[in-house]
């Protein structure tokens, strides 16, 4: 899914699949293509995250909204699940432009984070209300961390294998953007999508 105002603030520190794992999958014994293979791993991870609408390794995201929900019962959904639930990267911060024009940070005592839902969401505390804010571009900014963990060890095995398959597809026969006689078609193989479809959650509004 494409999000109008979602940006990646802090990229993952590592990839879910290492270059060594990719080389083993490709049966490559030399180091000549290490940089290229590493680039393919990153590109494959980004494609998989977009296809699944998920975050694999801990990444900090920022969502900008024009205003808070009009009803206190309405949540703010956090795209690209899962929301990080343990460790040091668990902070969810909300800043906003007050009606007076100044910038304020909403106290964490005024909202709850539903980390174990897909997607995660932020709601007001029981009986609480969203603060009055100016209705303008980027009036409300939500920043949070999402991912299965700080390393690739917690990423589902099916997802990691799909990344390896995609790297293999690009490395072995799909280096060019055009198809010539005898070339391998550029479409992502069915096997990759089949593995990933078991991990998709759908999209909610």
Textual characterization of the structure:
With 205 residues, this protein is of the alpha+beta class. It folds into two domains: 87 residues, Hypothetical protein yqbg, CATH 1.10.3230; 88 residues. 25% of the residues lie in helices and 19% in strands. The chain has four helices and eight strands, in the order E-H-H-E-E-E-E-E-E-E-H-H. The strands form two sheets. Strands 1-2-8-4-5 form a five-stranded antiparallel β-sheet, with no helix packed on it. A three-stranded antiparallel β-sheet has the order 3-7-6, with no helix packed on it. Strand 6 and strand 7 form a beta hairpin. Helix 1 crosses helix 3 and helix 2 crosses helix 3. The longest helix is centred in the first third of the chain and has 19 residues. It starts with 5 loop residues before the first strand and ends in an 8-residue tail after the last helix.
Topology:
Layout: E1 6-10, H1 19-26, H2 34-52, E2 59-65, E3 76-78, E4 93-97, E5 103-105, E6 111-114, E7 120-124, E8 140-146, H3 157-173, H4 190-197
Antiparallel strand pairs: 1-2, 2-8, 3-7, 4-5, 4-8, 6-7
List keywords for this structure.
3-stranded antiparallel sheet, 4 helices, Hypothetical protein yqbg, 205 residues, 5-stranded antiparallel sheet, 8 strands, 19% strand, 2 domains, alpha+beta, elongated
Cα-to-Cα separation, first versus last residue: 11 Å
Q: Which shape, going by the Cα principal axes?
A: elongated
Mean pLDDT across every amino acid position: 90
Q: How many whole angstroms does the radius of gyration measure?
A: 20 Å
Broad structural category: alpha+beta
Q: Give the uncertain stretches in residue-range form.
A: none
Q: What is the H-and-E element order?
A: EHHEEEEEEEHH
Main pleated sheet: 5 strands, antiparallel
Counted by DSSP, the helix tally is 4
Give helix % range. Answer: 25-40%
Widest β-sheet, arrangement of strands: 1-2-8-4-5
Number of domains: 2
Q: Care to count the β-strands?
A: 8
Strand residues, percent: 15-25%
């Amino acid at each position: 899914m494409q999000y109008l105002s979602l940006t990646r603030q802090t990229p993952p520190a590592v990839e879910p699949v290492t270059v060594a794992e990719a080389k083993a999958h490709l049966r490559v014994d030399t180091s000549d293509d290490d940089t290229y293979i590493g680039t393919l791993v990153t590109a494959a991870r980004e494609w998989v995250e977009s296809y699944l609408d998920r975050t694999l390794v801990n990444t900090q995201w920022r969502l900008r909204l024009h205003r808070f929900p009009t009803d206190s019962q309405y949540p703010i959904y956090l795209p690209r699940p899962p929301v990080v639930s343990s460790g040091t990267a668990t902070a969810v911060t909300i800043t906003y432009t007050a009606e007076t024009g100044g910038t304020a940070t909403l106290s964490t005592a005024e909202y709850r984070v539903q980390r174990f839902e897909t997607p995660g969401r932020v709601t007001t505390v029981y009986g609480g209300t969203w603060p009055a804010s100016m209705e303008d571009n980027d009036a409300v900014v939500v920043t949070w961390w999402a991912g299965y963990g700080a390393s690739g060890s917690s990423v589902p095995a099916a997802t990691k294998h799909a990344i390896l398959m995609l790297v293999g597809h690009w490395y072995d026969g799909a280096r060019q953007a055009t198809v010539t006689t005898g070339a391998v078609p550029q479409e992502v193989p069915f096997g990759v999508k089949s593995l990933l479809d078991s991990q998709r959650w759908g999209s909610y509004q």
